[in-house]
Design a protein that fits this description.
Mean pLDDT: 81
Shape: elongated
Strand order of the largest sheet: 2-1-3-4-5
Largest sheet: 5 strands, parallel
Length: 224
C-alpha cells in the first residue's frame, strides 16, 4: 500500500480552506491533518483552537505545508517558511499572484515550490507528490521567475559551470561529472571551484556537496 502523504494548510481565507478540505478529501493518497490562519496557530496554539491542528497535540508534523505567501497577520513570509522548515515539513507556497520578486525570496528562504491559486486539483496534487518524493515542485511561475532573476544573490554561471554543478550535486563523483562533460577531472574541479567562489561573492557560502545541492534547489537550476 502506498504511503499516505500528510498535508497542512496555513491560509486566512476560510473559503479557500473549505475548498481545500473538499478537494484533498477526495484524494486517497493525501490526508489533510491541520489547517490554520497563521503559522503560529499551526505550531503553537492550544488544540481547542485548532480542530485540525497538531501544534499542541504532540503529533508528528505534516509531510507538506501549503503556505499562503501573504497573511493578514503581517508575518514575514521568509520567517514563516523557516519556522515550518525547522519542524521537518516541506513547504509549498501558494499565492494569488505570480510576483517574481516574492517567488525568488520564498525560494531563497527555503520553500520547495510555488503555485498560484488558480491551478487545478491535479496540478496541486502533482506538486505535493513531487515534494513528498524529495523533488522540488516546478511550475510555470517559478520557472519564469528564476529565468529572469537578475538579483546579485543569484550568481551568473557559464553553461559548463552549470553542467558540472548539476551533475556533481545530483550525486555523481567529480570524476564521473568530468567524464560526462568530456573534460579532465582537474578542469571539472576548476569549474566547481569557480561556482563556489561565485556563490561566496554573492553572500551565499557554499562548501560541501550538500550545499551545492541546496543551491541547485534554491535557484531551480534543474528546472530549465
Amino acid at each position: 500500500m502506498a504511503r499516505v502523504i500528510t498535508v497542512s494548510v496555513v491560509d486566512d481565507d476560510r473559503m479557500l480552506l473549505d475548498g481545500l478540505r473538499a478537494w484533498l478529501g477526495g484524494v486517497p493518497e493525501l490526508r489533510l491533518v491541520a489547517t490554520a490562519a497563521t503559522v503560529g496557530e499551526l505550531l503553537d496554539a492550544p488544540d481547542a483552537h485548532l480542530p485540525y491542528g497538531f501544534g499542541a497535540t504532540g503529533c508528528s508534523p505534516p509531510d507538506i505545508v501549503l503556505l499562503d505567501l501573504v497573511l493578514r497577520d503581517g508575518s514575514d513570509p521568509a520567517d514563516n517558511i523557516r519556522r515550518l522548515l525547522r519542524t521537518g515539513s516541506r513547504v509549498l507556497m501558494i499565492s494569488t499572484v505570480p510576483d517574481r520578486s516574492r517567488i525568488i525570496e520564498a525560494i531563497r528562504a527555503g520553500a520547495d515550490g510555488y503555485l498560484t491559486k488558480d491551478h487545478d486539483l491535479p496540478t496541486l496534487v502533482a506538486a505535493i507528490k513531487d515534494l513528498a518524493s524529495g523533488r522540488g515542485a516546478l511550475s510555470a511561475e517559478l520557472a519564469f521567475a528564476c529565468a529572469f532573476d537578475d538579483s546579485p544573490a543569484r550568481p551568473r554561471l557559464s553553461p559548463r559551470e552549470r553542467q558540472i554543478l548539476l551533475d556533481y550535486a545530483s550525486g555523481l563523483t567529480l570524476k564521473s561529472a568530468a567524464r560526462r562533460a568530456g573534460i579532465t577531472v582537474h578542469t571539472a574541479k576548476d569549474y566547481l571551484d569557480r561556482v563556489k567562489a561565485k556563490y561566496q561573492q554573492a553572500g551565499r557560502p557554499t562548501y560541501t556537496k550538500l550545499d551545492l545541492a541546496q543551491r541547485v534547489r534554491e535557484d531551480s537550476l534543474d528546472g530549465g
